[in-house]
Design brief:
Blueprint: E1 8-13, H1 20-31, E2 38-43, E3 48-50, E4 59-61, H2 66-70, E5 73-76, H3 86-97, E6 101-104, H4 108-114, E7 122-123, H5 127-136, E8 141-142, E9 148-150, E10 154-157, H6 161-175, H7 177-186, H8 210-221, H9 229-236, H10 240-251, H11 255-273, H12 278-284, H13 290-301, H14 305-312
Parallel strand pairs: 1-2, 1-5, 5-6, 6-10, 7-8
Antiparallel strand pairs: 3-4, 9-10
C-alpha cells in the first residue's frame, strides 16, 4: 500500500483511434473516486477531439502530452493497432524513467511494447491480440490467459472489462483492499477478479494458422486422453521443437501451456453447466486426478473448482 500523501495524478492517454470503453473505465474509476485521493485527466497528443474505434462516437480531451509528464500513473487504453505516434512513445519512456507507474488496457499494451517498456517482462493483452503481440515483440513474455499482470512499475491488462479489474486492483495497491471494495460497491460491480484468473475465452480460440488448425482441433476432441506434447508433434508430423516454434509464433504460447489451458477451459465448462464431481471432471479433461485439477485451478485462476462452480454455474 502506498503512503497516504498528496493527490495521485492519473493521466489516461487516448491514442487515436481509442477504444472508448477502455478510456471511460480508467477515467471513471479514478476521476470519480470520491475521496480526493486521485486526480484524473483524459489526454492525447494534444487537447481537442480524438476519434474512437466506434463510428460516429468521438471524444474531446482536455490536455495534451504535458499531462503525461506530470502524472504519477499513466494509463494507455486500447487503440486501433498500428505504430503509435513517436511523441507518445517518447512521453511514455520519459514517464517511466522518472518513476511513474505505466499501465495498459487491452491493445494499449502494443504502445508499451513499442516504447520498449515490456522488454524482458511478462505482459498480457486481449486474448485475440496475444499472438500478434508475441510475434511483433519477441522480447516480451506474453501471457495470453490471465486478466492482468503486475510487473511493479509496469502493469498490463486483458481486454475491455479486465481493465476495470486492473483499475480496482491499483486502488487496492494504493489504499488497501477496503478502498477497492468501497470503489467497486460504488460502481455497482463485483470486487475485482484476481489477475491470475483466466480470460473468459474458449481454449484455443486464438486463431491458429493452417499448420496448427488440425492438431489443435484433434487435441480439443481428445482432451479426455493423456495427450502429451510429443503426441501433438506426432499428430502434426513435426518435431517437438518445430511444433513449439509454431505455437509461439501463431498462438503466443507453448504447446504444453496451450494444452493445460484447453483442459482447464473444458473443466470450467463442465463446472458451469453440470453437477459432475471434481474427480469425474478431472478424468474427462485429461487432468488425471482431482488433486491435479485443484492444483491447476489454483495456479491459473487463484481459486478452487468448487468456488468457481459456486460463482459461475448457470442457474
Amino acid at each position: 500500500m502506498r503512503e497516504e500523501s498528496a493527490i495521485h495524478r492519473v493521466a489516461v492517454l487516448a491514442l487515436p483511434p481509442v477504444v472508448a470503453f477502455d478510456a471511460a473505465i480508467a477515467t471513471q474509476v479514478f476521476g470519480h473516486e470520491g475521496h480526493g485521493r486521485y486526480e484524473a485527466v483524459l489526454c492525447s497528443l494534444r487537447a481537442g477531439p480524438v476519434p474512437t474505434t466506434t463510428p460516429g462516437f468521438g471524444i474531446t480531451v482536455a490536455a495534451g502530452l504535458e499531462a503525461v509528464a506530470a502524472a504519477d500513473t499513466v494509463i494507455v487504453p486500447g487503440f486501433r493497432r498500428g505504430p503509435a505516434p513517436a511523441a507518445a512513445l517518447d512521453a511514455l519512456r520519459a514517464a517511466h524513467q522518472r518513476g511513474a507507474r505505466i499501465v495498459s488496457i487491452c491493445s494499449g499494451a502494443f504502445a508499451l511494447a513499442q516504447a520498449g517498456l515490456l522488454d524482458g517482462r511478462r505482459a498480457t493483452t486481449h486474448w485475440a491480440h496475444a499472438g500478434d503481440l508475441a510475434r511483433e515483440h519477441p522480447a516480451v513474455y506474453v501471457d495470453p490467459a490471465v486478466l492482468y499482470v503486475d510487473e511493479g512499475t509496469v502493469l498490463t491488462s486483458a481486454g475491455l472489462a479486465a481493465g476495470l479489474d486492473l483499475c480496482l486492483y491499483l486502488i487496492g495497491l494504493d489504499h488497501g483492499q477496503s478502498a477497492a471494495i468501497q470503489r467497486a460497491r460504488h460502481m455497482v460491480t463485483a470486487l475485482h477478479r484476481a489477475g491470475g484468473q483466466a480470460q473468459y475465452s474458449l481454449a484455443g480460440a486464438t486463431a491458429a494458422g493452417e499448420r496448427l488448425t488440425s492438431v489443435t482441433q484433434w487435441a480439443l476432441a481428445n482432451l479426455h486422453q493423456p495427450i502429451t506434447v510429443a503426441d501433438l508433434a506426432r499428430q502434426a508430423m513435426q518435431s517437438t521443437r518445430t511444433l513449439s516454434r509454431a505455437f509461439a509464433t501463431e498462438l503466443g504460447t507453448s504447446p504444453r501451456a496451450w494444452l493445460i489451458a484447453a483442459r482447464l477451459r473444458e473443466a470450467c465448462t463442465l463446472l458451469e453447466t453440470g453437477d459432475l464431481t471434481v474427480e469425474e471432471i478431472a478424468r474427462r479433461t485429461g487432468l488425471g486426478s482431482a488433486a491435479n485439477l485443484r492444483l491447476q485451478f489454483r495456479r491459473t485462476y487463484a481459486t478452487t473448482p468448487l468456488a468457481y462452480r459456486s460463482a459461475f454455474q448457470r442457474r
